[in-house]
């Protein structure tokens, strides 16, 4: 099965072509603000180099979040359209699971996170499962560092893991708090701290495809405007779909 | 191969997502709407009293694949019958624009159909092409929430701004005074209705009306309006909301009509067009039509006021503008990006100021 996978979740743009488990090509590009300009040409490059067309891809995979909201939408919109128009399979993979997958080792707990500023992180914790996809033991969420570390400590008390591995962005600046945990830990290598589309493709192989219309980013956070409105009015958020009407 | 000599129909699938409407349409030969889908988010943004960009972007993404399919289904065509895919790439909210741009590029890549990037303002003006045939040169009064411009159309793809707002757009002023009157966003339609039930008793200022350029300013009017309301509040005086609306609208329409008529006299275009959300305003439509009937016969232009349903944001107008770009061979490639501050070029007369 040919899988084309992407991540636009962070400032690193990653695109890969996999044949089942094997990563055939992976291209990575650092661009702060231009995923929109670079994504499709990068796809084209990979297809041309491998003498393929989009029609020959069996499954599309994308990092569905968390991550940069705008970045996620560029990636998700693109693969939704591909899958919908070409009637191909589509899979969304957690950005954090994909990050964790690059740093797994037996008996370690991998904490994957993306810096969300002001000591907040989009984060989740994962364990190695040998042949299968890494299993999530602390749900992907938007956490203050204190909340995240408390959850890790609690998990550690109940489960013997050898070491904590922090991958992603922004954990280095929390070194002082990490020391206070009194649990052995290390940071990911530079390669592990980046998201790799090849890993997304591998994880996507084990997932069940979803309907292209239904695939949406996992933002893991309401907008400030919605949170304020909810607080002010006490009204439930409601389904996003109820707010859009065809006229 | 694109053969411009052939009589083959040109069908364009268009996308529009620059603000709070997600729209797709199939337009034949730049004139005929074969389908038009508009998914509006007004209900969502009414919670906040105005458009929240991040919320808008999320909603656009929720419907994009569905409304693509619907546009093709309603037009009863397949991708094989589409000659180009068009999309608004600016101006607008960057995150919102990016949904349409990403979707159109992906569709172009998946199907091999060429891509056309369209200026949103050019689209608003070209809504007229869906109503009647435009004779060139033409002059357009483009009035919306973000823009108030007088635009000279030399031909179907070469537009120049000859007059612009120095501060607020007319539509923006409507929304702001709407808030003072307790009218839900978007306020334009309600203010227009109220205006017809009242009289111009407040005589608000008509800024820059006698200046010899074609520029506008609405912030002074907005302030005068707000001050009048605040003052009345302080002395516990109840003002007639219909008269307030009528007075505000009279000031806006006076300035727009006065300057536009002067521009028509100078440029003597063959067609006069109105475009943008405020082009749906009854007061403005009636006034412009009336003023133009008073022009001397030899300079009286043909008047095209677009259908009310084409004044707001929609993809059909983007498909109409894209047809002209298609005929000119102006295509985009896969590096097309959203340009939130895209602007039509200014006329030399404006740059020399
Ligand atoms: Zn508009």
The interface involving the most residues is between:
A-B, 42 and 44 residues
Question: Low-confidence parts of chain A lasting 5 or more residues at pLDDT below 50?
Answer: none
Indicate the structural class of chain B.
alpha/beta
The rough form of chain B would be described as globular
Along the chain, the helix and strand elements of chain A come as EEEHEHEHEEEHEHEHHE
Shape verdict of chain A: globular
Point out poorly predicted stretches of chain B: none
- Which small-molecule species are bound to the chains here? zinc ion
- The number of helical elements of chain A comes to 7
Strand proportion of chain A, as a percent range, falls in 25-35%
N-to-C order of helices and strands of chain B: EEEHHEHEHEEEHHHHEHEHH
**Largest beta sheet: strand ordering of chain B:** 3-2-1-4-5
The top-level CATH class of the largest domain in chain B is Alpha Beta
Distance between the termini of chain A: 41 Å
- Lateral arrangement of strands in the main beta sheet of chain A: 3-2-1-4-5
Overall average pLDDT of chain A = 94
Q: Quickly count the domains of chain B.
A: 2
Distance between the termini of chain B: 45 Å
- As a whole number of angstroms, the C-alpha radius of gyration of chain A is 19 Å
The CATH homologous superfamily of the largest domain in chain A is called: ATPase, nucleotide binding domain
CATH architecture of the largest domain in chain A: 2-Layer Sandwich
Question: Explain this structure to me?
Answer:
The complex is a heterodimer of chains A (247) and B (353). Chain A contains 7 helices and 11 strands. Chain A has 247 residues and is α/β, with parallel strands linked by helices. Chain A is globular and about 55 Å long. In chain A, helix 2 (69-86) links the parallel strand 4 and strand 5. Chain A starts with a strand and ends with a strand. In chain B, helix 6 (188-195) crosses helix 8. Chain B folds into 2 domains: 2-126 and 311-344, ATPase, nucleotide binding domain (Nucleotidyltransferase, domain 5, 2-Layer Sandwich), CATH 3.30.420.40; 133-305, Nucleotidyltransferase, domain 5, CATH 3.30.420.40. In chain B, the strands form 2 sheets. Chain B has a 5-stranded mixed β-sheet with strand order 3-2-1-4-5, with helices on both faces. In chain B, strands 8-7-6-9-10 form a 5-stranded mixed β-sheet, sandwiched between helices. With 353 residues, chain B is α/β, with parallel strands linked by helices. The relative contact order of chain B is 0.19. The interface between A and B is large, with 42 and 44 residues. Zinc ion is lined by residues 120, 124, 144, 313 of chain B.
């Amino acid at each position: 099965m040919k899988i084309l996978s992407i991540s636009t979740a962070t400032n690193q743009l990653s695109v890969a072509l996999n044949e089942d488990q094997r990563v055939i090509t992976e291209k990575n590009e650092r661009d702060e603000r231009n995923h929109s300009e670079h994504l499709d040409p990068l796809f084209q490059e990979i297809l041309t180099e491998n003498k393929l067309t989009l029609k020959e891809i069996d499954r599309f995979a994308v990092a569905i979040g968390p991550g940069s909201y705008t970045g996620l939408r560029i990636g998700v919109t693109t693969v939704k359209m591909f899958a919908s128009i070409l009637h191909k399979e589509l899979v969304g993979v957690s950005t954090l699971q994909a990050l964790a997958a690059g740093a797994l080792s037996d008996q370690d707990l991998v904490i994957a996170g993306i810096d969300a500023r002001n000591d907040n992180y989009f984060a989740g914790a994962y364990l190695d499962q040998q042949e299968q996809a890494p299993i999530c033991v602390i749900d992907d969420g938007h956490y203050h560092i204190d909340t995240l570390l408390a959850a890790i400590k609690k998990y550690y008390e109940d489960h013997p893991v050898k070491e904590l591995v922090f991958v992603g962005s922004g954990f280095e600046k929390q070194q002082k708090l990490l020391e206070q945990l009194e649990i052995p830990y290390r940071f990911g290598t530079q390669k592990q701290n980046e998201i790799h589309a090849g890993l997304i493709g591998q994880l996507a192989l084990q997932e069940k495809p979803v309907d292209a219309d239904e695939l949406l980013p996992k933002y893991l956070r309401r907008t400030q405007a919605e949170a304020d409105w909810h607080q002010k009015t006490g009204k439930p958020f409601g389904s996003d779909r109820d707010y859009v009407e065809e006229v | 191969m694109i053969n411009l000599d052939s009589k083959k129909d040109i069908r364009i699938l268009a996308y529009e997502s620059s603000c709070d409407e997600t729209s797709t349409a199939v337009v034949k030969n730049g004139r005929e709407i074969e389908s038009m889908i508009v998914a509006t988010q007004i209900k969502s943004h009414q919670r906040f009293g105005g458009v929240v960009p991040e919320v808008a972007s999320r909603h656009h993404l929720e419907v994009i694949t569905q409304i693509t399919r619907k546009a093709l289904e309603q037009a009863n065509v397949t991708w094989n019958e589409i000659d180009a895919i068009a999309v608004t790439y600016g101006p607008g909210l960057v995150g919102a624009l990016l949904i349409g741009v990403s979707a159109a590029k992906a569709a172009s890549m998946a199907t091999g159909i060429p891509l056309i990037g369209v200026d949103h303002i050019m689209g608003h003006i070209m809504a007229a092409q869906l109503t009647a045939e435009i004779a060139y040169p033409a002059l357009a009064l483009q009035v919306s929430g973000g823009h108030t411009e007088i635009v000279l159309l030399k031909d179907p793809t070469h537009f120049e701004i000859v007059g612009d707002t120095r501060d607020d757009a007319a539509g923006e002023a409507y929304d702001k005074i709407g808030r003072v009157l307790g009218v839900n966003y978007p306020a334009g339609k309600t203010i227009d209705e109220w205006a017809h039930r009242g009289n111009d008793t407040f005589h608000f200022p008509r800024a820059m009306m006698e200046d010899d350029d074609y520029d506008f300013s609405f912030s002074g009017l907005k302030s005068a309006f707000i001050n009048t309301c605040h003052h009345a509040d302080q002395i516990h005086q109840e003002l007639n909301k219909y008269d307030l609306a009528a007075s505000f609208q009279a000031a806006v329409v006076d300035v727009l009509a006065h300057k536009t008529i002067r521009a028509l006299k100078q440029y003597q275009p063959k067609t006069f067009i109105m475009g943008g959300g405020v082009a749906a305003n009854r007061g403005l439509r009636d006034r412009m039509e009336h003023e133009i009937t008073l022009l001397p016969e030899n300079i009286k232009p043909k008047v095209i006021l677009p259908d009310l349903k084409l004044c707001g944001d929609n993809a059909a107008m983007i498909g109409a503008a894209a047809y002209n770009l298609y005929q000119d061979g102006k295509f985009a490639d896969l590096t097309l990006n959203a340009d939130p501050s895209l602007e039509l070029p200014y006329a030399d007369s404006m740059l020399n100021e």
